[in-house]
């Protein structure tokens, strides 16, 4: 069958398209369909209007209410002047409004840019500069962080940013809209069944961006990654099958839904597409999550290894009934094999290891894999159409089973970053393979084992920290002449940052003072160093670069010797 002819060019010409021959092949093979991600959910709403779709604390929304809310919100967004081809930055905690807003924006054709709640001025300013949104959706904030105030500062600084959509504010100024009001379903009205879905009703087409995810930021500030409906929809549908999500599934989101892992692997969107129930929460302890598992009979949950360890430690004494748990997905960082084995024995669930990246590729261990595979590998590619190359430092393929950098391309891995041709040229090969920066081995049946990274980044419990970014901000401190950040082993996070610093000789500098300075610089707190080592000089390699390997060995030695 020939692929359907595209009706029009992409809304946003700056979204780098996958090469035409591969795109045609994905369409011909039926992997890419003429579908919008928001419509996949809205179709479900028509099919099962009375089932519960989303739970947020005491608030529950049926599929019919969700459809009404999405259509109403889409209408209100259009009234605000938000149009197909615009972008809207979204920095919200897990809540009902988040889900409604994301789907409504997709329906309008103004893709959301999903921003981690932990990001602060430094990151936000950059993301707004790159994605040039017309609106920014935020929470009013907490006593420690005036998110609303920061949103206003950003609006003043970026003239294209016209609207603020604010959740939970006491008072709103001109150009600001109450997000809860915007996302309210309204009183009945047109039944969802009579609404038009599909590209004709929506502002987007399948080859337009459904969402922008942000890169883990291995080199400098986060990069924006536009994911098109056709690739993103295919990935989510595929992940639904691999994770065993059905209309009976109940998925608990405890980590921020701005993580692709939580939103789309298959996560929140996959569960809604399958007709299951999504429970949204922001618990600050395993106990809070356990309470919800018991109350909602949760079947699926996604965790980073750090949270997995916390759950394993808390479960035995909690008295909570966790018997409904079927699958716990663990990813973002590599869990230890011993702890991985305890997921079944102590939490009663099947562990599914997940490895992937915001740029696309997803790997999963399968639910019927042997324990050995599940405990010691990060799984195999989600799609038979995912292509792998494992290459050595010289760029040539290594022998089967040898370690090398993983390069990948496929039906849902993007072809480039948004408005960043330099980063695109550096991260993608001319024939469209993404250089993951991950050092892997492939076992004989194609399971990936993560061995390390090529690039200079620190994976703190799943959150990626660019050493380069941290160093450049630390060096703004008037006392720091030179700084170098490296990963050190950490009991809870797996890895954390140790910052080596050379001072100007004018007195000591403590870790607490440095962290306070980084906070003043508007840097997200998860990037702060856990340890500061003051040195007279940084070691250099033969060609005069800072010798990070020597620093990693130094800190490992100090930790082993128990040096405070
Ligand atoms: P992000 O785009 O923020 O999801 O980060 C993607 C990166 O996270 C990958 O390139 C890996 O370096 C790392 N990562 C993701 N999943 C795993 C995993 N299961 N084990 C080890 N590292 C992982």
Characterize the structure shown.
The structure is a single chain. The protein is of the alpha/beta class. The chain has 2 domains: 20-438, ANL, N-terminal domain (Rossmann fold, 3-Layer(aba) Sandwich), CATH 3.40.50; 457-560, GMP Synthetase, Chain A, domain 3, CATH 3.30.300. Helix content is 33%, strand content 23%. The protein has 18 helices and 25 strands. A 9-stranded mixed beta sheet has the order 2-1-11-10-12-13-14-15-16, with helices on both faces. Strand 1 and strand 2 form a beta hairpin. It starts with 19 loop residues before the first helix and ends with a helix. 50% of the residues are buried. Adenosine monophosphate is lined by residues 215-216, 260, 331-334, 353-358, 378, 436, 438, 450, 453, 459, 464.
